[in-house]
Amino acid sequence: QVHLVESGGGLVQPGGSLRLSCVASGFPFDDYAMSWYRQAPGKEREFVARVETFGGPTYADSVEGRFTISRDNARNTLYLQMRSLTAKGAAVFFCNIPTLGQWGQGTQVTVSS
Questions:
Q1: pLDDT per residue over 9-35, tens digit each?
Q2: Nearest-5° angle of CA 68, CA 19, CA 70?
Q3: Which run of H or of E encompasses 94?
Q4: What does the alpha-carbon distance between residue 102 and residue 83 come to, in Å, rounded to a whole number?
Q5: In this structure, are residues 3 and 103 in contact, taking their beta carbons and an 8 Å threshold?
C-alpha cells in the first residue's frame, strides 16, 4: 500500500528557512517522479515543485530560486528546502506522486513574525 508521510513543518519567521521531508513506502520510489504542493486556507492546492526520477527539478515561478526540491532514493525520501520564506500566513504542504495521484496527509508551515 502506497504511503507518504510528510514532516518538518512548523512556525518560522519571514526570511527564515525550513526543510520538509516526505518518506515514501509501498511502491518503487526511484521509478516515480515526485512533487510538492501547498494549500493555504480557503485556497486551491497549488503546485510548488517536481523532481524527476533522474533528479531534474521544476518549480513554480513563485518559489524559483528560493526553494530546492531533492530526493534520496536510497532512503525513499523527498525533500523541500525552503529559504527566504515570505509572510503569507499558513499553508499545508503535501507530497504527491503525479502519475499515481497519491497524496500524503500534509505538514503545516506558518510564516509569521
A1: 999 999 999 999 999 999 999 999 999
A2: 35
A3: strand 89-97
A4: 26
A5: no
